[in-house]
Amino acid sequence: MADTSDALVFFGASGDLAYKQIFPALQAMVRRGQLNVPIIGVAKAGWGRDQLVARARDSLAHHGGVDEAAFAKLTALLSYVDGDYGDPATFERLRQELGGAQHPLHYFAIPPSMFEPVAEGLASIGATAQARVVVEKPFGRDLSSAQELNRALRRVFAEEAIFRIDHYLGKEPVENLLFFRFANSFLEPIWNREHVNSIQITMAESCGVEGRGAYYDEAGAIRDVVQNHLLQVTSLITMEPPSAADPDAMRDHKTLALKAMLPLSDRDVVRGQFRGYRNEPGVAPDSQVETFVALRLRVENWRWAGVPVFIRAGKNLPVTTTEVFVQLKRPPRLVFEEDHPGHPNYFRFRLSPDVFLSLGARAKMPGEAMRGEEVELVARHQSPDEMAPYERLLGDAMRGDQRFFAREDAVEAAWRVVDPVLGRATPVYEYEPGTWGPAEADRITPPDGWVTPTPPGIVP
Ligand code: BG6
């Protein structure tokens, strides 16, 4: 099915995701002239179309701003269906709104428990055969529920029609990570166990759970960001070069990288919870859910055997930043008599909130002595016109481009990695808000220590 989608239906139109991400993405797509098809919001909110339009305006006022010209065009495309997802009448009304659309894109911005009834409702009105569907993370709660969800969706949609969204894959710097690896020849000879000592990934957020306590307390850091965003990033760093840029060659190699990751064991994981988390609305007073995790991952294949990958992620940490740090081995001998030979060479990929990639090296300090200092060669690229991930990924889904969406086998492979340490498998230790997690996390420390990311906007 190569046609561009000729209608966009989004379920969960009154929800948080629509408010924070989908309306801004729709306005941006309309502004760029990339969206000119009927857009139908569906929700059970007791609303009419006017309320949907008011909600869209409010969303844009808080997330990126209203562009009156684009908003007028967006409004002209918008319609609304109110109703219960279990009620056939809701889908009958949707069928009328779809009119003659042949290839709708259905966006499930709804809890996974609703995927199956909605997919069946769509099938009952004949709106699935030529359609595509975008589904949100978290895709399941563990390996077995993800497999069940995949089976449920596959009863109605073909795999090529299912777009599992992970907004990290739509981030410009994450895509650049892939590009940098495979558009340059100098990296390949050193991108392996002979030259790389360790890899560390930090996803730090200084905010807490910000009113999402009920969701977060069902998830925790491992389900919220490790199983998806951070293992996807790890797969981009560790995958083999794809033979072609077609979506499946790329996704095959990502899946193989995920499959090479060993399932985590208790001793590879330390979980933390910030003090005060249990007082958040929606959080259980005796919650054992982690708001911080540090883990050590092993990628057991020819290229990476013996190179540990360290991941730490958490809320209420000292800064908000996501960074990948690939540390190379030291030179085989110290030629110069330095007391502190400093960091070995490294590559740093800053993914958010600012964007840069850099190479850490040593250069001689001026003076008689053969002493060195660390220098960082930085490439920066940040264009104000950068597309937000949801805009980019929605556009890709409308065109049927699967490249930056997670495939069924990759999602399941990622669950297989984290499955053994989900829930209460390991203790959860308290940490002070604004620190780098509990002291117990020192047990999971890269060979030369964690690198503290520089604050946003400050290039090393
Ligand atoms: C989401 C998580 O997927 O990613 C949030 O549910 C997290 O908890 C967010 O804050 C981070 O995304 P970004 O794009 O701000 O790095």
Structure description:
The protein has 460 residues and is α/β, with parallel strands linked by helices. It has 12 helices and 15 strands. The longest helix has 18 residues, at 221-238. 45% of the residues are buried. The protein binds 6-O-phosphono-beta-D-glucopyranose. The site of 6-O-phosphono-beta-D-glucopyranose has 5 residues, from helix 9.
Number of helices: 12
- How much β-strand is present in the residues? 15-25%
Order of strands, widest sheet: 14-13-12-11-7-10-9-8-15
Mean pLDDT across all residues, rounded? 93
Helix fraction, binned, reads 25-40%
Number of strand elements: 15
Radius of gyration: 23 Å
Cα end-to-end separation: 47 Å
Question: Can you write the helix and strand succession as a string?
Answer: EHEHHEHEHEHEHEHHHEEEEEEEHHE
Structural class: alpha/beta
The 3D shape can be described as globular
Largest sheet geometry: 9 strands, mixed
Which stretches of 5+ consecutive residues score pLDDT under 50? none
Bound molecules: 6-O-phosphono-beta-D-glucopyranose
Summarize this structure briefly:
This protein has twelve helices and 15 strands.
Main features:
alpha/beta; nine-stranded mixed β-sheet; six-stranded parallel β-sheet; 31% helix; 20% strand; binds 6-O-phosphono-beta-D-glucopyranose
